[in-house]
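Let us work through a complete example step by step.
Step 1: write down the sequence.
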Amino acid sequence: MAQSRRLTLRDVAKQAGVSYQTVSRVINNHPYVAEDTRQRVLGLIDELDYRPNKAARSLAGHQTNTIALVASDIYDYGLTQVVISIERAAKAAGYDLVMSIAGNPSSASMKAAIESILHWHLDGMIVLKPIRGFSHAEILAMVGGLPLVQVNSQYDDQLAPSLMINQEHGTRLLLDHLLQLGHRDIAVIHGPSNHYDAVARQAACGAILREFRMRAVAEGAGDWSAASGYAAMQGILGQGSAFTAVFAANDQMALGAMRALREHGLSIPGDVSVVGFDDLPEAAYYEPPLTTIQQDFARLGENSIAYLVECIEQPDTVAERRLIPPSFVHRRSTATPRR
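Step 2: predict the structure and record it as tokens.
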């Protein structure tokens, strides 16, 4: 019997008893899928003869099957991984993806990047906006009623359809680890104040320390780079404050801080424990390997496409912040304090 409508990726997921994201991962040959699940989904795809047919869907739903991604930049490791994942997930869902890259993290550049892409006939847009100062209301005013999902930009826009990795939870995992080891004198290197992730980690760090009636014994700030972490650590060491642990807001700044500590004659983790955030591929090869937080950038990208498709296909989809949990990675850069 002929099918009354074209099968969608969601139909395959429902019949296979798995999530939309799992089917997307199978189609894109993602490694993190159980082999029995992979074979079941592939078998069902073959049995149902599922093919993303963009022309058919366009005729049926008056869609262009094109979505846009606007990003502030793609030079940071995490942002690059999110963009790659978004491209793969869009393809699996049967959409073409057009991109506009701002080139630098400023509101003016983001506005120009959005304006440059509005001549396309789009079904929806994802805005990868880790910087502050450009609100959801401003973006909506530019794109009209176009379905819109923001990534890494929730703190100013509580009602915006958005996705984030849970920065507060990741910060708590790191501080709980240091506190359980016995550290009470902790120095902190914050990220740039115009980045949502940095603001979230800084706020969470302060709140968690206050829970234990503590505060950072010394603080510095950087721009995410190793060089800025090195400079911030040099500044902290110059203050003469005694500390046994360093919370660096990302892995790159942790790397710079570790070098400054060594140059000051301090060993890691013998004299000072160090933690980072992101779990860069290189973090496992730092000396010593870095205790950090792993952010699932691939899942963030996949889920952003899933949310946008939901908004396109179901216009009454609830606008909410969807959080993705990070995970703790324990390596040899932390230990019980000597004093």
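Step 3: interpret the result. The chain has a mean pLDDT of 87.
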